[in-house]
Design brief:
With about 300 residues, the protein is of the alpha/beta class. The chain has 8 helices and 15 strands. The structure holds threonylcarbamoyladenylate and magnesium ion (MG).
């Protein structure tokens, strides 16, 4: 079967959309991904809106090379060996995030770790090169639907709201990448996939990280967090929204996409402040507001 060849025009149109903060559906060797600029918080927030997820799952960030990946995460010897053996290819590595990485914290849902992959598909590689930045891309389907292995699956999943799709025919593997976490010299398998890593132990339930999408440990601030705060109480750092300015705001104009983009930055900043407690102004539950409130609820209980 000969796949339709994605044109250079389609790749350059897609790169322009991504650099303008929009999303594009792209072929990879595993499944089609819904890609956005990983350094742009609002673009990454749009990924969650488009997928219709009621919470923030950390996303895989796609980069051009191992050298580029090393700018964003710390590689131990085991992780580097795996990357050298399998990249470019259908392997995702979950590693400690570098503090100076420009990737938005929303892409990794505020976690200390980040999932990185160097894809092998020539169209995805060309797109990453044309954009000149890392691309966050979950599978290009609405939450709860099957992962798309053809452009038509993407269009069927999103219907009238389908993004621009670069059609490069059916994907090679038809199955999402293998996810491996490398931590303190141990390799653990978070999601089985096309690459088999014999040394990896299955991730134990109830461990630090469970199956993909079921992270047991989320980033939680070290301080008590009060929700629905309309004013600052003594000792509190107030994170504002809309008409409530606070010490710092999720979005002064009350924009939920902007608020999602800023959420983890604001939480980390509040945690690092000299104030003993954190309060957050009310955020409406509409649209991506539900995911923001889900995350804030977990943070307040943690
Ligand atoms: O083949 C693939 O990996 C496709 C293509 C588009 O590259 N992408 C994909 O992404 O399957 P997504 O978002 O559907 O799956 C990413 C999985 C999630 O289930 C998430 O829980 C896990 O990776 N993940 C991401 N970052 C993580 C982290 N820091 N720690 C643990 N798990 C993480
Ligand atoms: Mg998926």
């Amino acid at each position: 079967m000969t796949a339709p060849k994605a044109s250079e025009a389609a790749i350059s149109k897609a790169a322009n959309l991504i650099l303008a903060g929009e999303l594009v559906a792209v072929p990879t060797e595993t499944v089609y991904g819904l890609a956005g600029d990983a350094t742009n918080g609002e673009a990454v927030a749009l990924i969650f809106v488009a997928k219709g997820r009621p919470h923030f799952n950390p996303l895989i960030v796609h980069v051009a090379s191992l050298a580029e990946a090393e700018r964003h995460a710390a590689f131990d010897a085991a992780a580097r060996a795996l990357a050298e053996a399998h990249w470019p290819g259908p392997l995702t590595l979950v590693l400690e995030r570098r503090a100076d990485s420009p990737i938005t914290k929303l892409a990794s849902a505020g976690l200390r770790t980040i999932a990185l992959r160097v894809p092998a598909h020539p169209v995805m590689q060309a797109l990453i090169a044309a954009c000149g930045r890392p691309l966050a891309a979950p599978s290009a389907n609405r939450s709860g639907r099957l992962s798309p292995t053809r452009a038509a699956h993407v269009r069927a999943s999103f219907g009238d709201e389908a993004p621009f799709v670069i059609d490069a025919g059916p994907t090679e593997h038809g199955l999402e990448s293998t996810i491996i976490v490398s931590h303190e010299g141990r390799l653990r398998l978070l999601r089985p996939g096309p690459i088999v890593v014999p040394d990896a132990e299955p991730a134990e339930a109830g461990g630090a990280i469970e199956a993909p999408g079921q992270l047991a440990v989320h980033y939680a601030p070290s301080k008590p967090l009060r929700l629905g705060a309309s004013e600052r109480r003594e000792g509190e750092w107030l994170i504002g929204f809309g008409a409530i300015p606070g010490d710092a705001t999720l979005s002064a104009r009350g924009d939920l996409i902007e608020a999602a983009a800023n959420l983890f930055e604001r939480l980390h900043e509040a945690d690092a402040s000299s104030h003993a407690r954190i309060a957050v102004a009310p955020v409406p539950d509409a649209g991506i507001g539900a995911a923001i409130n889900d995350r804030l609820g977990r943070a307040s209980r943690g």
